[in-house]
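We were asked to recover a plausible sequence for a given structure. The inputs and outputs are reproduced exactly as logged, with field labels preserved.

PROBLEM: sequence recovery
POSITIONS: 121
GIVEN STRUCTURE:
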């Protein structure tokens, strides 16, 4: 489980808050032969985000639109949150069947300027 404070710190350390990086969700699934091994199952750019104060979560999602969420879109809004709000979980909605999925890790692709949120189903 990852929290807003985790992503703020990782973005600062790994890509130095470069505003033009795009958020990307990367789906991992358990290997059919080995429960401890995760295998790549696809990826997609994230199209929207919302801070849900009622559920205490940062939601990001895929809606099939052409919009893309960048570091510059979201980080300034995260940095002004109260300290207690920085403990909100980060969750991703992929589609109608796969909603509210936990983020299990972060990564980056410096060549393509992508900041990656790893999710597992």
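RECOVERED SEQUENCE:
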């Amino acid at each position: 489980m990852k929290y807003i404070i985790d992503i703020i710190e990782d973005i600062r350390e790994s890509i130095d808050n470069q505003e033009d990086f795009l958020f990307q969700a990367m789906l991992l699934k358990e290997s059919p032969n080995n429960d401890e091994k995760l295998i790549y199952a696809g990826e997609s750019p994230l199209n929207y985000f919302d801070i849900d104060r009622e559920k205490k979560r940062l939601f990001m999602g895929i809606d099939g639109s052409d919009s893309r969420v960048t570091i510059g879109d979201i980080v300034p809004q995260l940095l002004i949150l109260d300290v207690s709000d920085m403990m909100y979980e980060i969750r991703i909605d992929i589609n109608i069947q796969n909603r509210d999925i936990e983020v299990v890790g972060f990564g980056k692709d410096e060549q393509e300027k992508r900041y990656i949120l790893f999710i597992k189903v």
